[in-house]
């Protein structure tokens, strides 16, 4: 299985790859969204091989995401292809919003050989529906987790996240983007500046885990 067979795109690290990150997109936009390409290129510039991919509904140009088992199977296929493409031995998975949640699902399913999970904008609950939590699987995760969350995220603020994170037995770190929203955008700050900070935090975290 190669990257082409799963519709994935690889971003080679500058120099020898320190790790591999398989990065999944959010519900509303695919792997070619500016956030995804900026993150992939940013990690590659920091010495990490990156693979992005589109979930089946996105490839088929459908608006409604597939059910979780389909998303998880697609994610696992991308991981398999990425492992064959990259020589890196430490493998991380993660994603934006829904993609990050699917990464935590795979972490809870104990996919073999993972070094950790990185989530950018964890969708704790739908906006305006704080009682509809998506946390049942979190205590089953056994690998380290990094969550980068905007302080003003309508899908779950860092304060709302805390009880869920306290239920986890795996090592978990929460990085808060001051005044950030669900897309980690901050009013009054250049987008590139915010993402550079996030990339530095996540890269440092990956270098110290796995």
Measured by DSSP, the beta-strand proportion falls in 15-25%
Q: What structural class results from the helix and strand content?
A: alpha/beta
- Helix percentage: 25-40%
Tell me the number of strands.
7
Return Rg in Å: 16 Å
Low-confidence stretches: none
Mean pLDDT: 96
Q: What is the succession of H and E elements?
A: EEHEHHEHEEHEH
Distance between the termini: 25 Å
Number of helices: 6
Instruction: Tell me, briefly, the overall form.
Output: globular
Main pleated sheet: 7 strands, mixed
Side-by-side strand order of the widest sheet:
1-3-2-4-5-6-7
Would you give an account of this structure?
With 210 residues, this protein is of the alpha/beta class. Helices cover 34% and strands 19% of the residues. It is built from six helices and seven strands. The protein has helices spanning 34-45, 56-59, 68-85, 98-108, 158-166, 191-207; strands at 9-11, 19-24, 48-53, 91-96, 114-120, 145-150, 172-177. The protein has a seven-stranded mixed β-sheet, sandwiched between helices. Strand 4 (91-96), helix 4 (98-108) and strand 5 (114-120) form a beta-alpha-beta unit. The longest helix has 18 residues, at 68-85. The chain is globular and about 40 Å long. 42% of the residues are buried. The model has no long low-confidence stretch (mean pLDDT 96).
């Amino acid at each position: 299985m190669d990257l082409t067979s799963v519709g994935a795109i690889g971003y080679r690290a500058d120099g020898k790859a320190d790790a591999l990150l398989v990065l999944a997109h959010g519900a509303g936009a695919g792997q070619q969204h500016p956030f995804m390409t900026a993150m992939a290129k940013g990690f590659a510039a920091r010495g990490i091989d990156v693979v992005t991919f589109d979930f089946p509904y996105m490839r088929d140009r459908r608006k409604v995401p597939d059910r979780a088992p389909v998303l998880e199977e697609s994610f696992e296929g991308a991981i398999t292809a990425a492992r064959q493409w990259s020589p890196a031995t430490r493998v991380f998975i993660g994603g934006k919003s829904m993609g990050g949640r699917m990464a935590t699902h795979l972490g809870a399913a104990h996919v073999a050989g993972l070094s950790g999970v990185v989530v950018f904008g964890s969708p704790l609950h739908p906006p305006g529906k704080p009682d509809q939590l998506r946390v049942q699987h979190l205590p089953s995760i056994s690998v380290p987790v990094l969550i980068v969350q905007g302080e003003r995220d309508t899908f779950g603020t860092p304060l709302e996240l805390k009880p869920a994170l306290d239920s986890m037995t795996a090592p978990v770190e929460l990085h808060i983007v001051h005044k950030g929203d669900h897309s980690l955008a901050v009013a009054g700050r250049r987008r590139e500046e915010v993402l550079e900070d996030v990339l530095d935090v996540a890269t440092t975290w990956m270098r110290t885990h796995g």
